[in-house]
Write a sequence for this structure.
């Protein structure tokens, strides 16, 4: 592949409803959409999952734009690429900035799959024709609001409910949810809102039969997670703590978790995601695909990686209509009975609607070798 030009666009999309986590509330989604064009005219799409502000991790839309403009795109333009697997090795000497790296790597994977005439799923080695998904529900104004949403999403067929928690919105809330829905697959995501000193509160969740508790402690702390996991019945799933294959290896070795949430952006791309997937398979650690309130492009990448064997738990890739009035892909991602049918067209398998992209674009710049 000879990359002829890459266009970065800053898109701004209003969420249908605010999404609240332990670290803040999202009303709009600002992100970078990447279009990579080959000398033969083929087009690949990628999406950066870095948010506008450094809440979830240290990356932001601006740091990603800077990394892409000043380091990653120049490296990409330096020489042709035979296979997208080369992209992450070419970027390896640059520390971290995984979301920026993943965004452009994703566009190259899409481009490569399209030029090979196969789906992104196939080129990654995925075999599933449909994937199971759950839904992530933000912190609500009242428990009644939460129960209503769970009722609604359960009736739509979502395979498991993930409830965001934080100190003060945890044990009592989960107890009520359990009382109303004794049989649903239920989990909680703390987004690092607790410390080991909150042990009693976390231990109290054991009685509700959660499929897992996601990232209770600090992003950087796989040691305390290991101490906590040793005392909890509920499996710990790590999200924010896993940035790489090496992090996953160490967390597994220490016993810091029993499940891993793979987010393509958080770990630097599809190649690294696949490596982590394979490592977890070897060690009997189930994985699932997390979400970052993506537009359709990021969603399509998530669907493709989820077709790999060891994605055995439902992910957070909900339908486009759960987030957006109008997504930027055609057709939008739909969920029936908790399942997404994996698209069979080459690459990401969805058409990007350029009119819709235009409507959401607040800044754009094109780069050439
Ligand atoms: O921790 O998985 C998370 C949203 C924003 C930031 C972090 C997370 C989330 C979600 C929503 O849980 C996942 C989604 O629906 O895309
Ligand atoms: Mg999470």
């Amino acid at each position: 592949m000879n990359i002829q030009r890459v266009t970065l666009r800053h898109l701004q999309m209003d969420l249908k409803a605010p999404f609240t986590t332990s670290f803040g509330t999202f009303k709009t989604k600002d992100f970078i959409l990447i279009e990579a064009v080959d000398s033969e005219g083929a087009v690949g799409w990628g999406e950066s999952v870095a948010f506008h502000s450094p809440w979830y991790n240290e990356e932001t839309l601006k740091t990603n734009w800077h990394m892409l403009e000043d380091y990653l795109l120049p490296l990409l333009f330096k020489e042709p690429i035979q296979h997208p697997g080369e992209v992450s090795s070419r970027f390896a000497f640059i520390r971290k900035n995984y979301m920026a790296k993943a965004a452009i790597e994703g566009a190259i994977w899409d481009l490569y799959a399209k030029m090979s005439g196969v789906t992104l799923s196939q080129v990654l080695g995925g075999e599933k024709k449909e994937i199971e998904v759950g839904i992530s529900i933000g912190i609500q104004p009242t428990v009644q609001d939460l129960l209503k949403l769970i009722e609604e999403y359960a009736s739509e067929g979502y395979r498991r409910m993930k409830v965001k928690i934080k100190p003060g919105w945890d044990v009592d809330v989960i107890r009520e949810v359990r009382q109303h829905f004794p049989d649903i697959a239920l989990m909680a995501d703390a987004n690092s809102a607790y410390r080991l000193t909150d042990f009693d509160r976390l231990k109290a969740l054991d009685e509700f039969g959660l499929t897992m508790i996601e990232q209770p402690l600090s992003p950087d702390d796989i040691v305390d997670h290991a101490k906590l996991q040793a005392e909890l019945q509920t499996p710990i799933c790590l999200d924010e703590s896993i940035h790489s294959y090496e992090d996953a290896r160490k967390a597994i070795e220490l016993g810091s978790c029993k499940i891993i949430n793979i987010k393509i952006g958080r770990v630097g791309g599809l190649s690294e995601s696949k490596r982590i997937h394979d490592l977890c398979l070897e060690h009997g650690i189930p994985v699932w695909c997390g979400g970052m309130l993506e537009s359709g492009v990021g969603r399509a990448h998530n669907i493709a990686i989820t077709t790999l064997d060891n994605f055995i738990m439902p992910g957070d890739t909900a339908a486009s209509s759960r987030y957006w009035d109008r997504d930027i892909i055609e057709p939008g991602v739909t969920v029936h009975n908790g399942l997404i049918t994996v698209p069979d067209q080459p690459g990401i398998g969805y058409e990007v609607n350029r009119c819709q992209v235009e409507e959401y674009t607040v800044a754009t710049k094109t780069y050439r070798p």
Observations:
- The chain has two domains: 3-118+351-367, 123-341.
- The two ends are 13 Å apart (CA to CA).
- Residues 189, 191, 214-215, 239, 261, 290 surround magnesium ion (ligand 2) (CB under 6 Å).
- The chain has a mean pLDDT of 98.
